[in-house]
Structure formats: C-alpha cells, structure tokens
Amino acid sequence: MRHVIALDVGGTGMKAALVGTDGALLYEARRATGRERGPDAVVETILGFAADLRAHGVEHFGVGAVAAGVAVPGIVDTGRGIARYAANLGWHDVPLRDLLGDRLGGVPVALGHDVRTGGLAEGRIGAGRGADRFFFVPLGTGISGAIGIDGAIEAGAHGYAGEIGHVVVRPDGPVCGCGQTGCMETIASAAAVTRAWATASGDPEADAADCAKAVDSGDPRALAVWADAVDALAAGLVTALTLLDPRRLIIGGGLAEAGETLFAPLRAAVEERVTFQKLPEIVPAALGDTAGCLGAGLLAWDLLSTEVSA
Predict the structure, then answer these.
(1) Phi, psi of 121 (to 5 degrees)
(2) H-only helix segments in 126-259
(3) Cβ proximity of 69 and 297 under 8 Å
(4) How far from chain centre, in Å, is Cα 63?
(5) Distance of alpha carbon 50 from its chain centroid, rounded?
(6) Tens digit of pLDDT for each residue in 95-114?
(7) Most confident residue range from 21-35, 87-101, 217-231
(8) Fewer Cβ neighbours under 10 Å: the N or C end of the chain?
(9) b/e per residue, 136-166, with b = 16+ CB within 10 A?
C-alpha cells in the first residue's frame, strides 16, 4: 500500500503517522523530542523516528514510504530544506531534508514550518475547507499564523509571512523575546494568559485553562485577565484582516480549547473594532494537535505530485 511518512516536531514531543493516498492515517505514533539532550540529539531522534516509521511500513504494508514530510518550528528555508533556527530546540542551519533523505534510502523529503504546515491541513481538510482565503492562528506558547490562498499557504519572500504574534498591539506593553515591546503574543498567547493568571490568582501552578474555568465561574480577577488577552488578540486580528481580507479566521491552539468562553467575546471585540473591513467568519480549528502531522503528509504527497508533473 503506497504511503508517506508524516512527522511533526514540537518542543517537547513529536507526532508522526503513515498516511495513505487518500489521506487515511494508517499508523500513528508519538515520541518525546528530548531537547534537554541538546540539538544534535534532537536531530538524531528525528532521524531515528523516521527510520522506525519506514520499517513499520515495510513490515506491515510490504513496502517502504514513497516520500516524507516533516514540520518543524522556528525559521525554515523550505526551498533548500534547511531548519535555520529554532530557539526551543537550540539548532542552527540543520540540513534536515538531506539528512532525512539519506536515512530513508533516498526518498524525496519535504520540509515545512510547523504553523504553515498545520494551516495547510486546516485549509484543505479542516476548518478552512471551502474557503478560498483564510488565516489560521494557533494560540500556544507563542502566536504565529498561516495565510491560506486557494489551497496553498503563502510563505512570503523570505519565509516569514504570517508572524502576527509580533504585531505590536500595546507599545507600552511587555518586552517580547523578539526585541520589540508589546507584541500580541506577550499578552494574548496561552503562555501569556498563564503568566497573568498565575500572578492574579496567586497560584504559581495555575494555567490558561484554569483561567478559562475561573472566567466561566465569574471570578473578577480572571475576567480582567481574559478581557485583556481578548482585547489584544482582537487588535492584532483586525490588523491582519485589514491587510489580508480573509474569508475565514481560524483560531486554534491551547486557548481555543476554551470554546465559546474565548470565541463569544473575541467575535464581539473584532466586530466592535472593524470599520470599513469585511467581517470574516471566526471559527475554531478542527484538527487539534494533529494538524501539523496531517499537513506534513500533505506536503509529502504534494512533493510527489510536483515531481510527476515535472
């Protein structure tokens, strides 16, 4: 049975699958990234995981994968297949496409940015299906975005398109890791809400999910933290829709798991801010934490289709 390897590398864990021609998940597995062992060990873990997936395909389907797709965080040179930089993995200029191709016996390998790869999956088989223009924004440790246009993801001239988390929404706000002050992700990411709620509640172990629960129970401290995050998020999203005019805004990541606790006030805040802009649909992501892995499979099949047509 023809299949490809799909691999989504995160800061703490990796999700992987063997994906059939119809997009079916033939096999799924997870493994720790092990970043505490250093960047070289992380790369070796990725290569070993991919090799194990190939061996599983040979054993259970009688044939190895015909291609592989891998999604990684940070700055990615997709054209050259190089993982340029990832702060949470500690690597610089890793020729991951070539390394994987060698480990997998020379099969073609596609390398993608994790958020844009997840956006590809959401656009084709998830919440963006049927929308010719969409913007996918996962709210996690940080905030990034994927610009969807007619079934493809726009990477930009240098591979940095969609970095909405670094739109400044509070010039007098917190200092961001990027060097700016008041970036959206310093206030509206799941990590930012976790920090704010831990301080407001006095519980250092409290997180964003706890804040959402406290919002539902009417806790005024939680309501204040949540309103601040929603206001910052709405400001950034209105900037995005002003520039991009998407038909659909797809919100994913940890904060989106709060459901209408997030979406009801967010829709209202965005609607209140728009003037001449066309208000898009604002919907939750459909694929959860499998989006990156599914997108990596799509990258692999797309790569094969391109090679055949060439």
Answers:
(1) -65, -45
(2) 185-188, 190-201, 208-216, 220-244
(3) yes
(4) 31
(5) 20
(6) 999 999 999 999 999 999 99
(7) 217-231
(8) C
(9) bbbbbbbbbbbbbeeeebebeeeeebbbbbb
